[in-house]
Design goal:
heterodimer, A: 112 residues, mainly beta, six-stranded mixed β-sheet, 11 strands, 0% helix, B: 113 residues
Chain lengths: 112, 113
């Protein structure tokens, strides 16, 4: 069974800092991996989707990488802003099934 | 463009009561999903519908039923609510069944007393 872990569970950084959020998964036979953002009391917003054949995806200040062999994905946020404060979740889509397995999320706070 | 719309946003039930959570999407997506989100358990799939006319169980389907009414609408029914079903419920949709970028609704916070 796929297990997805995100460490740390919470992170606080000063504004302007570059930061990396980590996601690890136990089964490397994934179809794709998505990163989501969740604001308090709201639904999830898809940020980036990386197919298994890709190594990374970029959108603005966000860059997500995927290393299937090591079972890891990272989300890099450049020049962080207070508006980036939210919970970030990763989710792996396995080849064998039709279910996304979500990590527990990293709660990010960017202080002005 | 509303995206994925869920109703209601909040609901309080007594044990044994029934209710239906409604979900509609206006993106012409084929696939729709119901998730629940619980502290310490993350997001877990309850049921999904890969296309109109089909539904399948997810990870935690017990105590729930679903109906894919048409391509736009996917409802989740609790026939006899239990305190263990207290959770935040999210509906989501994607263009196809292999989760090409999920779009989520804003959620329903359900409390079962």
């Amino acid at each position: 069974k796929q297990e997805v872990t995100q460490i740390p569970a919470a992170l606080s950084v000063p504004e302007g800092e570059n930061l990396v959020l980590n996601c690890s998964f136990t089964d490397s036979a994934i179809y794709n991996l998505q990163w989501f953002r969740q604001d308090p009391g709201k639904g999830l917003t898809s940020l980036l989707l990386i197919q298994s054949s890709q190594r990374e995806q970029t959108s603005g200040r966000l860059n997500a990488s995927l290393d299937k062999s090591s079972g890891r994905s990272t989300l890099y946020i450049a020049a962080s802003q207070p508006g980036d404060s939210a919970t970030y979740l990763c989710a792996a889509n396995n080849n064998a099934g039709n279910m996304l397995t979500f990590g527990g999320g990293t709660r990010l706070m960017v202080k002005p | 463009n509303a995206g994925v719309t869920q109703t209601p946003k909040f609901q309080v039930l007594k044990t044994g009561q029934s209710m239906t959570l409604q979900c509609a999407q206006d993106m012409n997506h084929n696939s729709m999903y119901w998730y629940r989100q619980d502290p310490g358990m993350g997001l877990r799939l309850i049921y999904y519908s890969a296309s109109e006319g089909t539904t399948d169980k997810g990870e935690v389907p017990n105590g729930y039923n679903v109906s894919r009414l048409n391509k736009r609408e996917f409802s989740l029914r609790l026939e006899s609510a239990a305190p263990s079903q207290t959770s935040v419920y999210f509906c989501a949709s994607s263009e196809d069944r292999v989760y090409e970028k999920l779009f989520f609704g804003s959620g329903t916070q359900l409390s079962v007393l």
